Structure formats: C-alpha cells, structure tokens
Amino acid sequence: MSSDPPNDSPPRVEPTQPPGPLVSQLPAPLLATTRPPSSALASVSLALSILGFLGSIIPFAGFVGTIGLILGLVDKRQPDLPGSPRSHGQATGGIALGAIGTVAGLGWALIFYWISTADGHASCPHLYAFDGQEYRLDADLASVAIFEAAEREDLDRLESVREVKVSTGSA
Fold this sequence. Notes:
This protein has helices spanning about 30, 40-55, 65-75, 90-115; strands at about 125-130, 135-140. It is mainly alpha-helical. It folds into two domains: about 35-115, no CATH class; about 120-165, no CATH class. α2 (about 40-55) packs antiparallel against α3 (about 65-75), α2 (about 40-55) packs parallel to α4 and α3 packs antiparallel against α4. The longest helix is centred in the middle third of the chain and has 29 residues, at about 90-115.
C-alpha cells in the first residue's frame, strides 16, 4: 500500500511535434496579411478631418477639416523609409473628409457674406420713383432682418422723386 495522496490531475504528456507550423513554413499570402502602420501625422489628419466633417453643420467649424486636409497632404508627400512602408489610408481619409469640411466652411462663409451684403438690394418690395423721364429704384421697403431681435425701423430717402407737371389737355 502506498501512502501517497491521490492525484486528480491528468498525467503530463510531452509533445512530440511543435504545436503548429512555424512562421517560416506558412504560405506567402498568409505572411503578408499584416497592414503596415500609419504615421501619427495621418492619424491626426483623420481625427481633425472627422471633427471638421461632423462639425460642418455649425458655421465655420468645417474649417477644422482644412487643417486635417493639409496634414493629410503633408503625410502623403513624405516618402516611406526604406524597408518600412506605411499605410496611407488614414491620410487619404483625412484628405477626403477635410475637403468636404472645407467646402462646407466656405459655404457658410458665402451664406454669411450674402446676408451681410443683402441690405438695400435683396428683398421685396422695391419702391421705384419717377424722376420726370424714367422710373428709378429708390428704396427697398423691407429690411433684411432674419429674426425678430434684428428688426429695426427704416427711413428711406426718395432721391429720384421729382415734381411732374401734368397738362390736362385743355387750353
């Protein structure tokens, strides 16, 4: 009789073969499945471009994407180091989204420019006055206030109005 305590673990078996194929034994397509790394510049480009793209619904926030656009272009122009290629997918995404954000920022700029220059010639009704020879645009009767707090009273000076003598035809 033995006085050893019972052992519930399975007996240890020494492997006779390696657990799997060695890396050098894998076929060539399986060795090339790892993606080359992206640069930090490309990552920052993509992050800023996403912010500019998503923020483009807010006036002028799309211009954040312009910074991402520029950084993406700089990253794409930098040569890869010999023996260590880089993935340019993030830089390409940064360029595309940054361009969209930049266009949206320019769109907001055009809208604000149009609103700021619309005073005096962009609304209706217009008042035309007869100067004795022809009718001339003299005033724009409605202000360009687009919300109640911007409304104001306008006084229009009618510069083209001239007195016209009308003959009755009987002498």
